[in-house]
Amino acid sequence: MADIQGSYDDLFSAVPRALAALLDEGDVGGSVAVLVDGEPVVDVWGGFADADRTVAWQRDTIVNVWSVTKTMTALCALVLADRGELDLAAPVARYWPEFATAGKEGVLVRHLLAHTSGLPEFDAPTSVEDLCDWPSVTARLAAQVPRWEPGSAAGYHSLTQGFLVGEVLRRITGRSVGEFFADEVAGPLGADFHIGLAAEHDPRVAPTVPPPSRTEDYSASAPGTPGSGAPAPTGADPGTSTGTRTSTPIRVRDGNTPAWRRAQIPAASGFGNARSVALVQSVMACGGAARGVRLLSRAGVDRAWEEQFRGEDRELGMSVRWGLGYGLFGSTYGWGGWGGSLVMVEPDSRMAVAYVTNQMREPADDTRGMELVMAAYDGLTGLRG
């Protein structure tokens, strides 16, 4: 059995066993954390940080979590809303006047968070270099025509959501999403999560490894096509690349570049480990505070549960429920990232579960996130029993 490092409550021993099984099946590396009442009951890791399996995964190894980053950006918006600085029911143009063109006057801030604004992708081909140019990419979105009546339908905004929400936050605070997150969320919590990664952290990064038999040119298949899989709770989010239905094909090799790490792409370029992901989202699980740090009121947290859309998502090609910045799944909410990373929040049990990995699998075959979540529930039953 694979060697698993870290610590865990004996009631939750199914979680490290499940991680070991994934590594035994061939995964390169990963980490899992389960926090209950804001405190760790599981904090484990194992495997390797590199595809050649020469560098062991360490306690402070971090990895690109792709679309799990969306939950961090959403939390920033909820914090501002809770402070009264952002009205989620207001037109986006109240904060971003240039946005009120091309039929977008009626787009509300909540539409951005719920993937219902009608701007699921860029109209023109977009390179990774383009995504690194914040003024240019946000100006392009401000000029676009929505693809449907805003608020009337949902279509997963795989890359655009982060820029849309992020620009609203920037207009209000004068800070980028990464700066706001670092100052107001990660810093107070002591969470090792970054949107816009400084070069000093590069040695700790575990590069993304494509699925077996794939190369670094691998990109996700189009939502709704065979093999595309589904987003959280399975963790098989189509992520930042949607094949023939996007103008921005992001490859594994793109995500492994310094340019991607430095850029603030608030829908997809967050870096952290399971410990930091679970810690941040424990704020949502625990009524707005974790480890003595209060970021939101209970009412502010409950906004995430407000259903904005229920039905078939035009981009994902599957039935979804969207809250404000999170996917809703029964008694839980959260989201998964391209390649397998996942965070799920269970408010009734005040539990947050996070899994991050450098090992991609084909989305249609990837159930790792849910296997680990179910293992956590096994422990929770004993803890509450």
Widest sheet, order of strands: 1-3-2-14-13-12-11
Helix content: 25-40%
Largest sheet: 7 strands, antiparallel
Calculate Rg over CA atoms. 19 Å
CATH superfamily: DD-peptidase/beta-lactamase superfamily
Q: What is the total domain count?
A: 1
- CATH-derived topology: Beta-lactamase
In whole angstroms, the N-to-C terminal distance is 29 Å
In words, what does this structure look like?
This protein is an alpha+beta fold. The chain has one domain (4-384): DD-peptidase/beta-lactamase superfamily (Beta-lactamase, 3-Layer(aba) Sandwich). It is built from twelve helices and 14 strands. It has a seven-stranded antiparallel beta sheet with strand order 1-3-2-14-13-12-11. Strand 11 (327-329) and strand 12 form a beta hairpin. It starts with a strand and ends with a helix.
Give a nutshell description of this structure.
The protein is of the alpha+beta class and 385 residues long.
Write the layout of secondary structure elements.
Layout: E1 4-8, H1 14-24, E2 29-36, E3 39-47, E4 63-64, H2 69-82, H3 109-113, H4 128-131, H5 134-143, H6 160-173, H7 177-189, E5 194-195, H8 252-255, H9 258-262, E6 270-272, H10 274-285, E7 289-290, E8 293-294, H11 298-302, E9 309-313, E10 318-322, E11 327-329, E12 332-336, E13 342-346, E14 351-357, H12 368-384
Antiparallel strand pairs: 1-3, 2-3, 2-14, 4-6, 5-6, 7-8, 9-10, 11-12, 12-13, 13-14
Helix pairs in contact: 1-12, 2-6, 5-6
